[in-house]
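Narrative of accomplishments. A recurring question from our advisory board has been how the design workflow behaves on a single, concrete structure rather than in aggregate. To address it, we present the structure tokens for one chain from the evaluation set, followed by the sequence designed for it. No filtering or post-editing was applied between the two.
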């Protein structure tokens, strides 16, 4: 049976006095705040990729990509219909009549 060395994890280097923070792994977990632009019309379950903001690479390699999965909460006023938003409002008859008249003007 073959397995990776439990001391060096396959790197071929043993660290005799490892760091107390990272325990010799060379990376530390920390929280990072990112700003991600959400494009208009995005739907529930879609993903946005943020290049270079993922987990650090193995043996000093570049960081991977971070994928943000979108979850849309229901809104109190608007309902989605594909890429369209709908809402129902109660308005006076005069407002409806005047607004309709303005649509017909050139």
């Amino acid at each position: 049976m073959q397995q990776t060395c439990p001391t060096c994890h396959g790197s071929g280097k043993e660290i005799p006095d490892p760091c107390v923070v990272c325990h010799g792994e060379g990376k530390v977990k920390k929280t990072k705040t990112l700003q991600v632009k959400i494009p208009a019309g995005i739907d529930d379950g879609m993903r946005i990729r943020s290049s270079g903001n993922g987990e650090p690479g193995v043996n000093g390699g570049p960081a991977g990509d971070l994928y943000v999965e979108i979850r849309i909460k229901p809104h109190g006023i608007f309902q989605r219909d594909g890429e369209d938003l709908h809402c129902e409002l109660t308005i006076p008859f005069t407002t409806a009549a005047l607004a309709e008249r303005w649509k017909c003007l050139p």
